[in-house]
């Protein structure tokens, strides 16, 4: 039996990463990292790509969504969320300090396979991540960073309403940093659940 041919009209669905979609998600991420950023594989920087099921366990605080073609089962794109602390010395210091309180989630690994672009997949995945973050209420703000040399990245995020909070293109990170205005949590930070607050306190006490 032949696989259904890829068609721009095929609908797709956002799904949590699973063992069944692991290989496809890794292929999309690794290909985009090499093609769009020109980056060689780094086992430290790309540790989450090498072991995404462990790094994105599907909790409120860390998850990876994949866009799956409904007709073929092919993984077309990825987008994730994880705790937003930045490494000192590798990012602007005022953002390192701002995101050290565990109230920021970082949008990460927003990639779409080359043959699946211009289908609204990246936009749809980001919307799905933001909706899930709002429902879970684990974070009070969402942030991200991208590169000016990544094709279309700056225009994409600004079209979605992300606000530039630091342009470190000439600095150590080579990145432009963004935040989305307002809280992603329904009703704002005051409705963060006791369980989430307790989890944050545990992480803070553990260093």
- Identify the quaternary structure here: single chain
The CATH superfamily label reads Gcn5-related N-acetyltransferase (GNAT)
Instruction: Give the strand tally.
Output: 7
Secondary-structure-based class equals: alpha+beta
| Mean pLDDT across every amino acid position | 85
Instruction: Indicate the percent of residues in helices.
Output: 25-40%
Q: Give the N-to-C terminal Cα separation.
A: 54 Å
Record the strand order, biggest sheet.
1-2-3-4-5-7-6
Strand content: 15-25%
- Count of DSSP helices? 7
Number of domains: 1
Q: What would you call the shape?
A: globular
CATH architecture annotation: 3-Layer(aba) Sandwich
The largest β sheet comes out as:
7 strands, mixed
Structure description:
By secondary structure, the chain is an alpha+beta fold. The chain has a single domain (12-205), classed as 3-Layer(aba) Sandwich (Aminopeptidase). Helix content is 31%, strand content 23%. A 7-stranded mixed beta sheet has the order 1-2-3-4-5-7-6, sandwiched between helices. The protein is globular. It starts with 11 loop residues before the first strand and ends with a helix.
Task: Explain briefly what this protein structure is.
Helices cover 31% and strands 23% of the residues. The termini are far apart.
């Amino acid at each position: 039996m032949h696989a259904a041919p890829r068609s721009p009209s095929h609908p797709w669905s956002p799904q949590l990463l699973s063992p069944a979609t692991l290989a496809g998600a890794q292929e999309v991420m690794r290909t985009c990292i090499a093609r769009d950023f020109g980056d060689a594989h780094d086992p430290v920087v790309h540790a989450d790509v090498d072991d995404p099921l462990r790094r994105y366990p599907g909790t409120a605080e860390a998850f990876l969504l994949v866009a799956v073609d409904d007709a073929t089962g092919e993984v077309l794109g990825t987008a994730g969320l994880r705790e937003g602390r930045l490494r000192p010395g590798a990012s602007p210091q005022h953002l390192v300090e701002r995101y050290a309180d565990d109230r920021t989630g970082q949008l990460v690994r927003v990639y779409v396979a080359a043959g699946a672009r211009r289908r609204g997949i990246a936009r749809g995945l980001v919307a799905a991540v933001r909706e899930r973050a709002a429902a879970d209420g684990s974070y009070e703000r969402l942030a991200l960073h991208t590169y000016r040399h990544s094709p279309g990245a700056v225009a994409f995020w600004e079209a979605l309403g992300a606000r530039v909070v630091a342009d470190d293109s000439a600095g150590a990170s080579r990145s432009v940093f963004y935040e989305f205005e307002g809280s992603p949590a329904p009703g704002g930070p005051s409705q963060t659940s006791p369980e989430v607050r307790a989890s944050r306190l545990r992480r803070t006490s553990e260093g």
